[in-house]
Every structure is written in C-alpha cells, then in structure tokens.
Design goal:
The protein has 196 residues and is an all-alpha fold. It has one domain. Helices cover 70% and strands 0% of the residues. The protein contains seven helices and no strands. Helix 3 packs antiparallel against helix 4 and helix 4 runs antiparallel to helix 5. The longest helix is centred in the last third of the chain and has 31 residues. The chain is globular, with a radius of gyration of 17 Å.
Amino acid sequence: MNKLNVRAGVLFAIILVAALSKLIFSHLGVYNLSPLVAIALFGGSQFKNKRLAYLFPIVAFLISDLAFYLVGKTGFYGVSQFFVYGAILLITALGTTLQNPKAIKILGYSLTGSAIFWIISNFGVWIGSRIPGAIEYEPGLTLGMTYLRALPFYNEVSAQMFRNAFGGDILYCLLLFGIYALAQKKNPALRYSNTL
C-alpha cells in the first residue's frame, strides 16, 4: 500500500469516526455536541485536493443526517439546513488557510469556526421563520430575537446547546488534529502530501 493510500485511509477514518460520534451523542440526549466545525477545519487543512476538502465534510454530514432520518429523528430540518451546509463550506474555506496547526492556532480557528456556524445557522433559522410551510415558520420572529434565543443565558436549552457547540468544537478540533499529529509521528507515511 503506498503512502498516499495510507494517508487517505487514516484521514477518512478519523473524519468518519468523528461523524459517527454525532449520532452517538444525540442518541444519549447530548444535543449540539457535534464534530461539524472540527471536520470542516480538519478536512480543509489536511486535504490538498480542495474538491475532497469541501466534499468530504458535506458528505459526512449528509450521511449522518440521513442516518438520523432513518432512525426516526429529525435528520432533515427545513430551510435552515441549507445554511448549516453553507456554514460547513465557509468553515472548510477557513480550514484551507490553517497552515502548520499548533494547539493555540487550532483553538483560535475552532472558536472562529464556531462563531461562523452560530451566526449563519441562526440566520438560516430566521430566514426559515419567514417562509410559510417551513419547519421554522414563526411569523413575527425578528432577527434579533432569533439570535437572542440562541444565546446561553436565554434559557437552559439554549445554554446547553451553546456550551456543547463551542465546547464540542474545541474538543473535537483538539482530538482530530491531535490524533492525526500522533499518527504522523508513529507513521511517516502520513506526513502531508501535495497529491491528496
């Protein structure tokens, strides 16, 4: 097996395990603890082939949303989902600028990715609230109220989701980048390649 195949296999395995953990935590009732931002940043920074960098996080989350749908949970949730996927693409673009990842740099990128996701996904909820028939439809909901509801002090559900989102993004970023850095030390074939 050549070095490129080993590297590709390890990258895909790390991202797949992270995506599956979204299903596990949701099943346990821990909501919004998701590897979404971490997968997008990791994929953006590690895949030299930018088509793969953008495609893999989208496909990973499309599969997890499909799995949610198949087990009877809300896998496809309306207009705001398009904004969620748009946020994934923007965070992946942010990840493509992450060179030589170090812990403090990863922390900064994680927080920036979390903020991008929070802003765009909540904007999507507001857009959905204005469309009759949409799951999010709520006439009279203002953009300000949409963001207010998403802040941690608004209610316990918002607090849990906010904490889990930002904390989970940091945790998953440190895990994905950390596991891959350890794997690179153990196996030189995993070092950055210009072809994947």
